[in-house]
Write a structure and sequence with these properties.
alpha+beta; 4-stranded antiparallel beta sheet; 3-stranded antiparallel beta sheet; 40% helix
Length: 169
């Protein structure tokens, strides 16, 4: 195998171990991560490996949203699920394409993650939305740093983490 193939296999293994639920994960959500850092690292590894399936697996699925999130949201009485989910899904598809097109195959590391202040969180009994997350990254090949807005919204559910969506760049 080539060095790139070895590297790609390692990245895929790291994503699988990070999101597999090892270590007592009893979350009803699939592919959760133990921290925001681990979640974003898994997403960046999937981008580098050009693995769109792994990238999408880190997202809250429609089924998870419908079963665990939607029933407690106050907007559910004023907005139809199809409209809400459709809008979010369309924006996410565009964000995934942009991530893949702009950064696919490029090694990127996290410099910092700024979480929103406690008073800006939207919390419910089982979960909390963390929106306005600011992720600063560095390209390992050039050292160039910048904010990658793709990871603006995270869901914390029972101490485990998933991406809500991928924002447009």
């Amino acid at each position: 195998m080539t060095q790139r193939t070895h590297s790609g296999l390692f990245v895929l293994l790291a994503v699988a171990l990070t999101t597999s639920g090892c270590g007592g994960d009893d979350s009803p959500l699939s592919n959760t991560s133990p921290s925001p850092e681990a979640l974003i690292e898994a997403a960046l590894a999937a981008v580098e490996a050009e693995d769109g399936e792994a990238l999408r697996a880190l997202l809250l699925s429609r089924e998870e949203f419908e079963e665990f999130v939607w029933p407690v949201l106050p907007d559910r009485n004023n907005t139809q699920l199809e409209f809400f989910w459709g809008t979010m899904a369309a924006n996410t598809r565009k964000g995934v394409r942009q991530l893949e097109n702009n950064y696919g195959g490029i090694s990127i590391e996290i410099v910092s993650i700024e979480m929103p202040p406690e008073d800006e969180l939207e919390s419910y009994e089982e979960f909390t939305f963390h929106t306005g997350v600011v992720v600063t990254v560095r390209r390992t090949d050039t050292g160039e740093e910048g904010v990658l807005p793709s990871f603006d919204g995270l869901l914390e559910y029972g101490g485990r983490w998933k991406l809500l969506n991928y924002d447009e760049l």
